[in-house]
Amino acid sequence: MKNYLTHFAETMFYQPTILTKTVSYTLLPLSIFYAFVMSIRRVFAKKESFDVPLISVGNLVVGGSGKTPFIISLAKRLDISPVYIISRGYGRDSRGLVEVSCPNRGILCSVEDSGDEPMLIAKSLPECGVIVSEDRKEGIKRAIKKGAKVILLDDGFNRVDIQKYEIVLEPENLPNRLPLPSGAFREFAINYRYADSFLKEGRGYNRIVKCLNCKNKMVLATAIASPKRLDRYLPDGVVAKIYKADHEKFDIDELEKALKEYKADSILMTQKDIVKIAQSNLPISILSLEMSIDDSIVKSVNRYIKDFYEKKA
């Protein structure tokens, strides 16, 4: 039932049909009320400042917009270190604050305790620190205590009670621009005006997708939001697809069975998915996703960080 509702919502948000449009418009009064409450919350929120510059990478829509690879790419191009990344850690088994990694000290916990995206960030950025916490302020304070000079907040645009530089990403294809539950927007689209940098895919940032260890016959297995958005990047040779809910764990037996059933040479996965089966011996092909960020955006962020410390001096 959960998978059906997820599929229905993704269809309504990203590939509307006559049926989903009917449901969407029926829910519109509830959507307007919800978005109005969220806007009022943003207007009257009291923002807390911290002693280090905070850079939020977020979005106004549910589903994937490339935040994780964007954070990885941006962290590599900042002029100051150490950099810490704070994430809520969606899909993890743990609760509370967990230190996933410390700069140049390696991984400090399991992927079950960190969640898939924080673990991918930690493995991609060994020179940075990664912390997961439902309470973002608690995570920020721990990062400062650990010596952070700049902090990146994963999915931080909805944290209206924290003073930060706001980078907001929007996917390239977004036909339904209504608020939840009628559409994919968490708030009215007009609230993009609160962003310091509003970037739409293709303008400001671009995906670079490569297939590593590509085989003749592969089974795609992925647990990301809106998995059909991968279709445009898939190489030849994908003979079957296994879709899981966003952040869902994989059953190794199911993947082994799929390899045999389709006589495939490997399982094709994104880097985010692979961290969840790192201990398996399955033959893996990698759908590598990197993010190209315009120089002007990186310069703006580095300028904000520099100005922050100059005002503090």
Question: How would you characterize the overall build of this protein?
Answer:
With 313 residues, the protein is α/β, with parallel strands linked by helices. It folds into two domains: 43-206 and 292-312, Rossmann fold, CATH 3.40.50; 208-290, no CATH class. It is built from ten helices and 13 strands. It has helices spanning 2-14, 18-26, 28-44, 67-75, 111-114, 116-124, 136-145, 252-261, 271-274, 295-312, and strands at residues 54-59, 83-87, 98-102, 106-107, 129-132, 150-154, 165-170, 197-201, 204-212, 218-222, 238-243, 266-270, 284-293. Strands 4-3-5-2-6-1-7-8-9-13-12-10-11 form a 13-stranded mixed sheet, sandwiched between helices. Helix 1 crosses helix 2 (18-26) and helix 4 runs parallel beside helix 6 (116-124). The longest helix is centred in the C-terminal third of the chain and has 18 residues, at 295-312.
